[in-house]
Design a protein that fits this description.
Elements: H1 2-9, E1 21-26, E2 33-39, E3 47-53, H2 75-86, E4 90-95, H3 124-136, E5 141-151, H4 153-161, E6 181-184, E7 203-208, H5 216-228, E8 233-238, H6 250-253, H7 256-277
Parallel strand pairs: 3-4, 3-5, 5-6, 6-7, 7-8
Antiparallel strand pairs: 1-2, 2-4
Length: 279
């Protein structure tokens, strides 16, 4: 109570985290019902919004022990959902894997063995656009102020989703699609983003130079190619940071390079969405 009163005295409004609300909506494949989790700020809105796309491990904690709810979302997804809600955004965590029977996600090094029904190139972008359509129907959302954020496999999904040739939307623009996108440590070797890739809205990418799962060098070459073609894209590389550098776990954050990358990416992500979703 003393800390609460001190925060009020200093003009700081403490943010009380609460469990996200579970929702269901249709993927843009018009067949798959997806589970999602809504993090909401205080007030009635309407608010800008962020669609969040999980990585290969899925939406939930490895300690969920068969109980897959808002309470057992991974620490990272809870953190970012609360991060955006605290800053006045509605955040929607999309469960692409669990909704298709792969609730536990997939292990490291499993990329070539994953089923086609969870493809980040042909399927998950449809989930992103299903989430966009769902949010636009809500009265508490500003329908033209929605961004998308993804991690690892979800970051790869973001890159495909933001393509001018993305599945799930025709002739996308910042008005008809997402207004801006954040991609955390994506792989950049997918067939869907090679050749004549052009993103229709700004993309901010974050990678660590010590990433053990994806190639920062490949992403830097790809980013340059997209920029040279006129794409609005920017990659930031954090020296010494690893894959999943923003995982809030002690083992990850006790590495100074990861902790620095986490704080820096939070600041830049907030500034990026404020620029594109709040103005």
């Amino acid at each position: 109570m003393r800390l609460l009163l001190l925060g009020v005295f200093l003009g700081i409004i403490p943010f009380a985290a609460r469990a996200a609300d579970k929702v269901q909506f249709l993927s843009a494949d018009n067949q798959t019902t997806l589970d999602g989790y809504i993090f909401k700020p205080a007030g009635r809105g309407p608010f800008p919004a962020v669609v969040m796309l999980h990585g290969r491990a899925g939406a939930y904690s490895s300690l969920a022990n068969g109980r897959y709810t808002a309470e057992t979302l991974s620490k990272r997804h809870k953190f970012w959902g609360e991060f955006w809600a605290e800053r006045g955004y509605v955040a929607l965590m999309v469960d692409s894997f669990g909704s298709r029977g792969f609730t536990k996600g997939f292990g490291k090094g499993s990329y070539e063995d994953r089923p086609s029904e969870v493809s980040e190139q042909t399927v998950r972008p449809l989930d992103a656009y299903g989430a966009l359509a769902f949010l636009r129907k809500r009265r508490d959302i500003q329908p033209d102020r929605i961004g998308v954020q993804g991690w690892s496999n979800g970051g790869m999904t973001v890159l495909v989703t933001m393509s001018s040739r993305a599945p799930g939307i025709s002739n996308p623009t910042p008005d008809s699609g997402f207004r801006a996108a954040l991609a955390f440590y994506p792989g950049c070797g997918m067939e869907a983003i090679q050749k004549s890739y052009r993103n229709y809205a700004p993309i901010q990418m974050f990678l660590g130079s010590a990433d053990e799962e994806v190639s920062p060098e490949r992403c830097m070459k790809w980013e340059k190619k997209v920029k040279d073609a006129g794409g609005d894209i920017h990659l930031i590389e954090f020296a010494g940071a690893a894959h999943n550098f923003d995982d809030p776990s002690k083992s990850k954050q006790e590495v100074p390079a990861n902790a620095h990358a986490t704080r820096a990416s939070e600041k830049r992500a907030e500034e990026f969405f404020a620029k594109h979703l709040l103005r």
